[in-house]
């Protein structure tokens, strides 16, 4: 009996000597969600990563060019064999739901959204209240930008505003575009009040109040909420006197110059630095000798300074980009470093002109002022009410002006869709003429997502795909 | 003692009675007796049959638990024959016994145990049992099965010997890693290695690639030290190891000293190894012809694209002009490299290097073990020392090992203490041999296959020739493989300590407490240097900037186990029970530094470098806490039941699911002990058993339940901005991550026929693995495409047959063993997805699909070759984009008339064999012994994707002689398999298809051994107990259709992508001379 007691004592002491957390081992050489999002510094890094998502080759660093520019009447993909025909099929309106570009773009967008959601879910650890507000504002701006792209690319889509796991995600449905736009507006309004008008020094390049306003204006315009758009844009337009300091550069080529990054015309851009490993980009193939619609090139008058930006320059034997995206390769990283501009002041002016015209045509109104400001900067002749005598002709002129001002800037496809001119534009190109149907204004939801969700009622494929 | 004296008294008493017997009138008497074993153990359940001589009257009774029997109604004065039979013992017959009238008829019977039968002791995990009592599926090997021929490692000794145990040697490099599969693969994402338990210490599960290449986890065990290997195959057997039992458990028990005078044993062998196969490559003249044809084909294809014409005699300048290339551009695939021109003219006396002959060598190997075992009543010891030196069959590779073991057992009253300490120091001379020939690892074997025979190994001044490294004309830039092997140094030092200490105390009779502390400590230091004398990676020029790499890894794994066992016999009931608690933890520290900028090649350590180009330092840990309990119950020694449960908690799983429970139960019935079986003389023993159990698999990453973050940086600030560090989740977390569970049913029959002349074991099993640890597609709206979750089901069912016989034909003793196993693997559920397609090595696809086995090859199906333009445009043939006559035709799987490499793939084979088999035979004739062992695999498929270069007819790298039979024209179509020569292939010739797949079936004679044991009369004077000499041939013959080195190859360890050959180390064929000497 004595021994039994001794044994029991030994056994129990061994049991007790094991600490309770014997089975709880956290990684010591890897950062995990078990030890991250715990400090203010963690959130700083999480916010940086939220911006980094923009560089993804499935977003602005690649697929967006296919989805937002190649799709339009501006440029054409002539390589049916390249990349399994993925880009070609999107350009030619042949792409099906199994096209990998849709899946990658969808995944990247939701990954970028999840980065924002993680920040917002844990921003409470930031003690500095001003910094906390700024981080929340940045996360909301970025999340709104991503959802704005999601809703324009696919229409109805799951609205995820908090970190979710797989089983929660499986219960998601495709929320309506109205719900998505409501969320986008809420986020942008919050961002506007949280973000400063500008940043200085090492913080330049972060989303600002002005960026949030410009994006909100575009969101309103896309929804045809012209009065709301005018109200937001009003703060941005007064040239030289707007508090954000935005203005048109006298020479349009300077806007894109790699030695003139984040100039006064840039409101928000995806940033690159080719001298740092991982921070440069390869020259996207569509900006490398793109096949540009000859009708677009012909639409410029001979003196228009924007026409020259579409000429190619030789960087080396294999790379001849358009001048707009001209840069030299960094010798050690073999990358380029142009920023990809998402919002710039010329866009604000043309949006304002468009919104004013939609609210009510005025033969001597401000709308002409801002439309002509963009034109005259490029040496194009000014429009008068004689040339644009009514709302419809002004509307057509603004759309054309946007085409001339923003080729290869990922504006054209969405402009065509929101102005309901995509069908006619694609029938009247100088390249392959394509007859498209309204269902093709949005893309098919990636087939993998449809398969995984397996919910034809709550999560259906877009019609006709 | 007392018992023995009593027995002896009875024995003499009985004898006296016999001799003084007197015939009297017939009255009925009885006979008393006792049956004991040679060791004096009382044998219960022995059947005793008495027959009166000249009559047919029979009666049969059995002994009671004290070994006693009483036969009544015997006629006094009559003669009787008594036959005693008992499972595991030779029948004992007493003839012409005369029954006395007095009451003192008595017999003491000593029965002799039959070896190699049910009475062997089988280790079952946390204890051992007589084979007779085992109710689960366990395969065993004894030291005699292992030690009589040279085996560099346990894996070699196991190969082909046990049904249901597949030992794969994917690489032939000395000391290289192995894979053991017990009953197929039940898992998809998690590891499929069995658990190794050495002297009670469960080994670390991830020590196999400490130095950055796969090493054999069993290297630390010296085969000569092994007493037995027991493999727990069914879930009921392995469930006692709970969460780690799903892939089977390999239990290794080492030799311990016996109470005896010291026994000194010396086991030595020495021999040579050579490559068992060389691939027949083209010589320089054949290769030059291929290049010529291939480049002209490309030239004409390009001309045709532009509507031009040309001639084979066009010189390079003409070719450039016609196709609009710059006059200075020599890096074009339609020009003729000037190097080949003299060969085309059949000029003799030019370099014609056979690179395989240059890198392969006849390599010596030796192994010596000396051991001393012995002891007294209270202390027993076994000490051994071992030296192994295996040079590789590829020049400058090898493995050397120095090892020692001390096993000690001590008894003091009720206390037993024991220790096993095994120390090993190993040195690997590593050479990369696997993978693409021109990747950054600079593989020597695939490099030698690819290298052009036009270039000599050495220049005339004795330096290495590196002309091919910088060869233009878009030819393969292979680095001189001999220089790679000789100039680089890559040494890994390995130290391994495996130790176990235990103490056992008998608290009261039959109740024992045991504590055991084990440690498995290994460390690796690997030092590699690429000198300036090898060409630079980019410029292909020498001197290059030297590159040094140093990595170290140390793994400490400790386990502590406490068990209490209680064994009891009550009447015909016997109980064995055990309860226990164990905790185990492992920590791995690893660092890896790569540096460059050495001033010269003299100082090769990192201190001489000026620039660190990459570095890492990591810590990894896991822990496991467990409780276990088991009861074994036997009734009348013929109805046997076992029930066990184990619970494991692991750090690797999510907080919600850390703990798992693993119950099991089994039953066995020794049918032959039933009375109704006694009359069937042909069956000497028959046992049937059935088991059910649940086991687990925890072989996933250490922190799988956490979401990992990766760097995701961005630039802010004026100008181009400055770097800001960012971090974002790169994998999703799963707090619910838990065990992968296998529930398995096993039915077994063991039968021994014709007085044990033939023994057969047949097993059927059905294993269902559920909650697979699977990276499944999740809604992309989570921000991730996959997540590691427990979902999905896989089924493995199969049959295993082992037959053995031992017969004596005159003076020849013959023992044969044959085994056969068949496993059918089927995926039942993939968590909603129908299939997972996995691409490996960038070129070969696998599909894992519901209703099919795991990891089928998923490729195009080559159906032939387009013989002419008419065949290409024939609508009956599916169109192959850009194909020309001489290019491959394919099966139009989706029937759309056009071949594309996504939608026209189908299942084209699997690496898992349809069945495996083994056969071994031993013959002993007086002093001569002879043995042969054969193993085979049938019905598996291997993707030899090295053929993408070697059999491509592109002429980029050297091709095999099979390509001599290539398509040249409709009238000269070759063997109908190989496409036309073309440097820039058209169509899909280079896309992985059935052209690149091969049947991997093989039959290999693993070893043939002939031994001579010197007669003991001769040895006694020298006080030698035993002396045997032998010669062995290992892997002397392999019969296979497989067209590369080794049909066991599999370069990926991912269970979803098995069976790829991308250049591998050939298996060695070896001849050894050895001796076993015992004093």
> Taking all residues together, what is the mean pLDDT of chain A?
90
Oligomer: heterodimer
Structural class of chain B: mainly beta
Shape of chain A: globular
Q: What's the number of extended β-strand segments of chain A?
A: 4
**Sheet of most strands of chain A:** 2 strands, antiparallel
Q: Overall pLDDT of chain B, averaged?
A: 85
Following the backbone from N to C, one meets helices and strands of chain A in this order, namely: HHHEHHHHHHHHEEHEHHHHHH
Helical residue percent band of chain A: 40-55%
How far from one another are the termini of chain B?
31 Å
Q: Give me the number of helical elements of chain B.
A: 14
- Give the beta-strand count of chain B: 53
Beta-strand percentage range of chain B: over 45%
How does the helix and strand content of chain A classify structurally?
Answer: mainly alpha
Uncertain segments of chain A are: none
Report, as a whole number of angstroms, the end-to-end distance of chain A: 79 Å
Instruction: Please state roughly what percent of the residues of chain A sit in beta strands, choosing from under 5%, 5-15%, 15-25%, 25-35%, 35-45% or over 45%.
Output: under 5%
Order of strands, main sheet of chain A, comes to 1-3
Q: Which spans of chain B have pLDDT < 50 for at least 5 consecutive residues?
A: 1-5, 7-25
Q: In words, what does this structure look like?
A:
- The complex is a heterodimer of chains A (465) and B (1079).
- Chain A has 18 helices and 4 strands.
- In chain A, the strands form 2 sheets. Chain A has a two-stranded antiparallel ribbon with strand order 1-3.
- Chain A is mainly alpha-helical and 465 residues long.
- The model of chain A has no long low-confidence stretch (mean pLDDT 90).
- Chain B is mainly beta.
- The radius of gyration of chain B is 34 Å and the shape is elongated.
- Chain B has 14 helices and 53 strands.
- Helices cover 10% and strands 46% of the residues of chain B.
- In chain B, helix 9 packs antiparallel against helix 10.
- Chain B has a 22-stranded antiparallel barrel. A 5-stranded mixed β-sheet of chain B has the order 10-15-16-13-14. Chain B has a 4-stranded antiparallel β-sheet with strand order 3-2-5-6, with no helix packed on it.
């Amino acid at each position: 009996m004595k021994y039994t007691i001794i044994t029991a004592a030994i056994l129990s002491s061994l049991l007790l000597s094991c600490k309770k957390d014997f089975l709880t081992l956290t990684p010591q050489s890897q950062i995990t969600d078990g030890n991250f999002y715990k400090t203010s510094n963690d959130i700083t890094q999480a916010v940086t990563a939220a911006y980094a998502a923009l560089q993804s080759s499935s977003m602005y660093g690649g697929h967006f060019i296919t989805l937002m520019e190649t799709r339009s009447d501006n440029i054409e993909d002539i390589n049916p064999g390249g990349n399994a025909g993925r880009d070609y099929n999107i350009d030619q309106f042949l792409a099906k739901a199994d096209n990998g570009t849709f899946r990658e773009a969808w995944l990247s967008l939701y990954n970028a959204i999840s980065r924002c959601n993680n920040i917002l879910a844990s921003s409470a650890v930031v003690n500095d209240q001003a910094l906390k507000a700024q981080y929340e504002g940045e996360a909301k701006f970025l999340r709104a930008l991503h959802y704005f792209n999601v809703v324009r690319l696919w229409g109805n889509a799951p609205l995820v505003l908090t970190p979710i796991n797989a089983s929660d995600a499986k219960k998601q449905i495709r929320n309506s575009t109205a719900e998505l736009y409501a969320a986008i507006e809420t986020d942008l309004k919050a961002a506007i009040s949280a973000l400063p008008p500008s940043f200085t020094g090492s913080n330049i390049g972060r989303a600002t109040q002005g960026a949030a306003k410009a994006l909100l204006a575009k969101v309103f315009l896309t929804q045809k909420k012209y009065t709301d758009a005018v109200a937001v844009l009003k703060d941005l337009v007064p040239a030289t006197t707007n508090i954000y300091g935005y203005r048109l550069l006298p020479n349009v080529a300077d806007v894109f110059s790699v030695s003139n990054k984040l100039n006064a015309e840039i409101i928000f851009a995806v940033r690159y630095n080719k001298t740092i490993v991982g921070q440069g980009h390869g020259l996207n193939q569509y900006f490398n000798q793109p096949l540009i619609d000859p009708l677009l090139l012909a639409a410029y008058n001979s003196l228009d300074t924007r026409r020259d930006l579409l000429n190619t320059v030789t960087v080396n034997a294999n790379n001849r980009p358009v001048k707009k995206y001209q840069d030299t390769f960094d010798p050690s990283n073999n990358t380029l470093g142009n920023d990809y501009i998402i919002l710039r002041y010329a866009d604000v002016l043309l949006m304002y002109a468009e919104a004013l015209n939609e609210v009510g045509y005025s033969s001597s109104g401000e709308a002409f002022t801002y439309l002509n400001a963009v034109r005259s900067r490029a040496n194009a002749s000014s429009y008068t009410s004689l040339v644009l005598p009514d709302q419809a002709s002004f509307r057509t002129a603004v759309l054309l002006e946007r085409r001339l001002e923003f080729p290869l800037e990922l504006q054209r496809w969405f402009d065509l869709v929101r102005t309901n001119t995509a069908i006619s534009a694609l029938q009247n190109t100088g390249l392959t003429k394509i007859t498209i149907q309204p269902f093709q204004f949005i893309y098919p939801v990636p087939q993998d997502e449809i398969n995984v969700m397996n919910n034809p009622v709550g999560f259906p494929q877009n019609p006709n795909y | 003692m007392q018992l023995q004296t009593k027995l002896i008294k009875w024995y003499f008493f009985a004898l006296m009675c016999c001799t003084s017997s007197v015939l009297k009138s017939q009255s009925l008497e009885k006979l008393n007796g006792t049956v004991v074993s040679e060791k004096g153990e009382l044998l219960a359940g022995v059947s005793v049959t008495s027959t009166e001589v000249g009559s047919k009257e029979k009666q049969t009774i059995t002994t009671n638990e004290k070994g006693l029997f009483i036969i009544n109604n015997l006629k006094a004065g009559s003669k009787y024959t008594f036959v005693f039979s008992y499972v595991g013992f030779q029948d004992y017959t007493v003839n012409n016994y005369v029954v006395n009238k007095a009451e003192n008829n008595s017999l003491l019977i000593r029965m002799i145990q039959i070896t190699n039968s049910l009475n062997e002791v089988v280790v079952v995990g946390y204890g051992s049992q007589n084979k007779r009592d085992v109710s689960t599926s366990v395969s065993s090997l004894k030291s005699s099965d292992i030690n009589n021929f040279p085996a560099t490692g346990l894996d070699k000794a196991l190969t082909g010997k046990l049904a249901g145990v597949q030992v794969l040697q994917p690489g032939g490099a000395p000391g290289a890693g192995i894979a053991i599969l017990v009953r197929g693969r039940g898992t998809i994402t998690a590891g499929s290695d069995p658990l190794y338990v050495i002297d009670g210490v469960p080994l670390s599960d991830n020590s196999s690639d400490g130095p950055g290449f796969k090493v054999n986890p069993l290297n630390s065990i010296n085969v000569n030290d092994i007493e037995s290997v027991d493999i727990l195959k069914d879930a009921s057997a392995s469930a006692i190891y709970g969460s780690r039992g799903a892939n089977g458990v390999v239990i290794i028990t080492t030799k311990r000293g016996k109470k005896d005078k010291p026994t000194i044993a010396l086991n030595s062998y020495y021999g040579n190894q050579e490559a068992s196969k060389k691939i027949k490559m083209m010589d320089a003249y054949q290769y030059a012809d291929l290049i010529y044809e291939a480049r002209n084909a490309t030239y004409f294809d390009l001309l045709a694209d532009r509507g031009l014409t040309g001639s084979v005699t066009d010189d390079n300048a003409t070719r450039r002009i016609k196709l609009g290339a710059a006059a200075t551009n020599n890096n074009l695939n339609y020009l003729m490299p000037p190097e080949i021109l003299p060969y085309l003219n059949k000029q003799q006396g030019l370099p014609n290097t056979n690179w395989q002959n240059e890198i392969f060598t006849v390599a010596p190997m030796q192994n010596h073990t000396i051991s001393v075992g012995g002891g007294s009543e209270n202390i027993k010891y076994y000490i051994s020392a071992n030296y192994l030196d295996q040079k590789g069959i590829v020049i400058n590779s090898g493995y050397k090992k120095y090892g020692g073991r001390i096993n000690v057992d001590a008894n003091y009253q009720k206390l037993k203490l024991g220790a096993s300490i095994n120390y090993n120091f190993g040195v690997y001379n590593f050479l990369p041999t696997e993978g693409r020939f021109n990747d950054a690892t600079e593989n020597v074997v695939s490099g030698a296959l690819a290298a052009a025979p036009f270039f000599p190994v050495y220049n005339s001044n004795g330096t290495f020739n590196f002309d091919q490294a910088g060869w233009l004309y878009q030819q393969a830039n292979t680095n001189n493989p001999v220089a790679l092997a000789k100039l680089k140094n890559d040494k890994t030092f390995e130290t391994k300590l495996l130790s176990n200490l235990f103490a056992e105390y008998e608290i009261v009779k039959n109740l024992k407490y045991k504590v055991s502390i084990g440690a498995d400590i290994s460390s690796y230091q690997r030092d590699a240097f690429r000198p300036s004398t090898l060409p630079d990676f980019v410029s292909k020029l020498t001197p290059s900037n030297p590159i040094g790499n140093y990595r170290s890894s140390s793994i400490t794994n400790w386990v502590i186990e406490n068990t209490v066992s209680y064994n009891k016999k009550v009447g015909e009931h016997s109980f064995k029970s055990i309860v226990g608690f164990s905790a185990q933890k492992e920590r791995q520290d690893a660092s890896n530094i790569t540096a460059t900028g050495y001033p010269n090649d003299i100082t090769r350590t990192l201190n001489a470098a000026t620039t660190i180009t990459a570095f890492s330092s990591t810590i990894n840990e896991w822990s496991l806490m467990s409780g276990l309990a088991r009861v074994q119950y036997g009734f009348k020694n013929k109805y046997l039941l076992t029930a066990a449960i184990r619970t494991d908690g692991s750090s690797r799983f999510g907080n919600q699911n850390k703990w798992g429970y693993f119950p099991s139960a089994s039953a066995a019935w020794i049918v032959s002990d039933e009375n109704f079986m006694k009359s069937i003389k042909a069956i000497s023993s028959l046992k049937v058993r059935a088991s059910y159990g649940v086991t687990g698999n925890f072989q996933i990453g250490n922190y799988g339940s956490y979401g990992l973050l990766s760097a995701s940086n961005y630039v802010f600030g004026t100008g181009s901005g400055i770097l800001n560090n960012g971090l974002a989740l790169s994998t999703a977390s799963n707090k619910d991550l838990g065990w992968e569970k296998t529930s398995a049913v096993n039915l077994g029959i063991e039968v021994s026929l014709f007085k044990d002349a033939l023994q057969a074991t047949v097993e059927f099993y059905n294993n269902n693995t559920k909650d697979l640890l699977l990276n499944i597609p999740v809604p992309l709206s989570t921000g991730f495409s996959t997540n590691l979750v427990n979902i999905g089901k896989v089924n493995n069912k199969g049959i295993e047959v082992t037959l053995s016989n031992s017969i004596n034909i005159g003076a020849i003793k013959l023992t044969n063993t044959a085994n056969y196993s068949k496993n059918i693997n089927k995926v039942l559920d993939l968590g909603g997805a129908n299939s997972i397609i996995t691409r490996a090595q960038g070129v070969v696809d696998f599909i894992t699909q519901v209703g099919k086995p795991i990891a089928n090859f998923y490729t195009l199906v080559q159906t032939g070759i387009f013989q002419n333009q008419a065949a290409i445009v024939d609508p009956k043939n599916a169109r192959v984009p850009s194909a020309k006559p001489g290019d491959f035709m394919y099966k139009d799987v989706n029937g759309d008339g056009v071949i594309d490499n996504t939608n026209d793939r189908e299942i084209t084979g699997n690496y898992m064999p349809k069945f495996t088999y083994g056969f071994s035979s031993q013959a002993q004739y007086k002093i001569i012994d002879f043995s042969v062992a054969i193993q085979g695999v049938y019905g598996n498929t291997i993707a030899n994707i090295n053929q993408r270069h070697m059999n491509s007819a592109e002429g980029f790298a050297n091709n095999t002689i099979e390509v001599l039979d290539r398509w040249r024209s409709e009238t000269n179509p070759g063997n109908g398999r190989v496409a036309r020569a073309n440097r820039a292939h058209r169509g899909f010739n280079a896309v992985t298809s059935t052209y690149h797949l091969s049947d991997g079936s093989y039959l290999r004679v693993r070893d043939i051994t002939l031994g001579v044991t010197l007669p003991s009369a001769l040895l006694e004077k020298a006080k030698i107990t035993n002396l045997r000499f032998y010669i062995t041939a290992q892997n002397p013959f392999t019969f296979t259709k497989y067209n590369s080195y080794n049909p066991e190859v599999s370069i990926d360890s991912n269970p979803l992508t098995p069976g790829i050959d991308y250049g591998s180390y050939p298996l060695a064929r070896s001849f050894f001379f050895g001796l076993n000497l015992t004093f």
